[in-house]
């Protein structure tokens, strides 16, 4: 797996001032030796409860604040040299636009800040407006935009300098389900499949994280408690495979006797089998059919990301 970003032993402490001059300022350690990897041209998702340190790591990655210690290495030499133009940050703060200006005028302004000029700037803005299907509304004042359109413009602004890394902080908060689905489609099809960007997604929405992410980073109390794909995290919690079979007609008793080496749970016409290796499944299905069993459906029972997240953050096994 090719890497885009390596984060090693990042620490960050904030000092909360007190109104009493004789007391020391309160010390809050937001990040404690945080280390993780972000694969290239994939979506990495930073997950964690409130106060876990997600916003702090996002601000450090985007250059808004500096870590106390630790290293961030961008594998791409171009990105390491010029972070300003090669990291695009999208926050959910729609008030960061100028509401009296049109969408196009706003994008022109921010493109100028990135150093884009003339024909290159015009072509880049027109192409992004077309890709995100907001071209026909680009010359309306921003105050007339729907929330979904504003969020599209926020993502366009993050892409305007054609960065290698896109950081999306809560890209679908406060928008309706249809607009949310549209943003998901844009992230998958436009940012990843078409433009081949590396994406770092920060979200509280576990369903969104499971749907979009290739790589998950779980933060809790300023520490990384788990990292990897959904399947990697699932194996960390429970390495076994749970397979369910629902029978229209249950097989002969000989079938159940043949499963003596497995943990088995039987309830009415449903059988749940716990196994070490999914390669056992075809033989089990074959055995059921040979013993006159009629199967309506069968599937692997996957633990939801919510359950994995809950068990890892609470320390459950």
What's this entry about, in short?
The protein is α/β, with parallel strands linked by helices and 317 residues long. It has helices at 54-61, 77-81, 83-86, 103-113, 118-131, 147-159, 177-194, 206-212, 230-237, 253-257, 281-290, 305-314, and strands at residues 3-16, 26-39, 43-47, 69-74, 87-90, 165-169, 198-202, 215-220, 223-228, 241-249, 263-267, 270-275, 294-300. The strands form 3 sheets. A 6-stranded mixed beta sheet has the order 5-6-7-3-8-9, sandwiched between helices. Strands 11-12-10-13 form a 4-stranded antiparallel beta sheet, with helices on one face.
Task: Write structural notes for this entry.
36% of the residues lie in helices and 29% in strands. It is an alpha/beta fold. The protein has two domains: 3-228, 3-Layer(aba) Sandwich (Rossmann fold), CATH 3.40.50.300; 239-305, Alpha-Beta Plaits, CATH 3.30.70. The longest helix is centred in the middle third of the chain and has 18 residues, at 177-194. The mean pLDDT is 85.
């Amino acid at each position: 797996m090719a890497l885009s970003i390596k984060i090693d032993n990042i620490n960050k402490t904030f000092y909360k001032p007190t109104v009493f001059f004789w007391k020391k300022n309160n010390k809050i350690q937001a990040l404690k030796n945080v280390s993780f990897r972000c694969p290239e041209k994939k979506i990495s998702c930073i997950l964690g409860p409130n106060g876990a340190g997600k916003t702090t790591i996002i601000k450090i990655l985007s250059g808004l604040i500096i870590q106390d210690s630790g290293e961030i290495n961008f594998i791409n030499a171009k990105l390491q040299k010029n972070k300003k133009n090669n990291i695009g940050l999208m926050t959910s703060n729609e008030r960061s636009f100028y509401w009296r200006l049109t969408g196009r005028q706003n994008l022109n302004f921010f493109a100028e800040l990135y150093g884009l000029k003339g024909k290159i700037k015009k072509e880049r803005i027109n192409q992004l407006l077309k890709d995100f299907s907001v071209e026909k509304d680009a010359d309306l004042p921003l105050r007339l935009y729907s929330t979904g359109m504003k969020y599209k413009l926020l993502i366009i602004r993050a892409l305007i300098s054609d960065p290698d890394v896109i950081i999306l902080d809560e890209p679908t908060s406060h928008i309706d389900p249809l607009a949310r689905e549209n943003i998901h489609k844009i992230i998958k099809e436009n940012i990843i499949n078409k433009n081949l960007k590396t994406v770092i997604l920060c979200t509280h929405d576990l369903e969104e994280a499971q749907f979009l992410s290739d790589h998950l980073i779980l933060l809790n109390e300023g520490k990384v408690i788990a990292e990897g794909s959904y399947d990697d995290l699932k194996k960390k919690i429970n390495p076994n495979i749970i397979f369910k079979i629902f029978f229209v007609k249950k097989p002969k008793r000989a079938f159940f006797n043949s499963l003596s080496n497995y943990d088995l749970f039987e309830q009415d016409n449903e059988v749940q089998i716990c196994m070490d290796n999914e390669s056992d499944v075809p033989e089990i299905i074959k055995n059921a059919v040979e013993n006159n069993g009629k199967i309506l459906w069968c599937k692997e029972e996957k633990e939801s990301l919510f359950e994995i997240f809950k068990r890892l953050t609470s320390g459950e096994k």
